[in-house]
Structures are given as structure tokens and as C-alpha cells.
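This follows on from our talk about sequence and fold. Can you supply me with one protein entry, sequence and fold together? Could you add the entry underneath, on a fresh line?
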Amino acid sequence: MNVRSRKNKNLKLTTKPTFLGRPIQTEHGPLYIDYLEKMHNTIDRALDEYPRLMAIRVDLRFPKLRKNEKSGNVMTDFLRSLQSQIDHSGKRKKREGSVRVHPCKVRIAWVRERSSSINDHYHLLLMF
């Protein structure tokens, strides 16, 4: 069943077990259809660019001693750093001449959650 979010009436929620023919996890509560569509589009674009796509799921948590980031740049900074490290590694391998280096654009889908801890945590899907 699809309903509107109480927090934001512009967003629709789903409790259905599938989305666009793919299984989704709604056991812990409904999911935002708008976000599912964006993730689906990101995955499709990544597959269009890289037919042999590698995807990795990662959970990121802040240390207990660190206060929660309020700037909203956590994922932007993380992705920029990761892309920079991949680019640097490719340039180094090219310089050494040891292997053929293909360009690699990282695509990411992520959600932020907060459960019983005081800090948010992030679930990421990294696609190379």
C-alpha cells in the first residue's frame, strides 16, 4: 500500500515487498518511493556506464566520542576522498606502466539512519 509521509506530504511511502519487480526490505517499516526511484536510476546509470559493475555495501558509523556531523557534508566529503584516492592510484599505476588503467567513476546510493545511538549511521552502496 502506498501512503503519504506524515513528516513530508510530498513524499510517498510503500510497504509492498517489491519495487519495480525487485525485492525490498519493508520489515522495519515503510520506505520512501521517491528515494527508491532515485536509487534505481543511479543503479541503472551505473550499469549503463559499466556493464561489469561491482557493488559493495558499507555501513559507516561515527565513533562514540565524536559528536554528530551537522554540516550535511559527510557523504560529499567521503565520496570526494574516495574518488581522489582511486584517481591517485590509477595515475600511479599509469606512471609505473605496470598495468592498463581504465577510468573509474564511483557512484553511490546512501541513507542516513539513527537508531538507539546518539550518532547517525550511514548505509552506502558503492558502485564501480
About this structure: DSSP finds two helices and eight strands in the chain. Strands lie at 2-4, 12-14, 18-19, 22-23, 31-32, 55-61, 107-113, 121-127. The chain has a mean pLDDT of 86. Residues 94 and 100 are 7 Å apart (CA to CA).
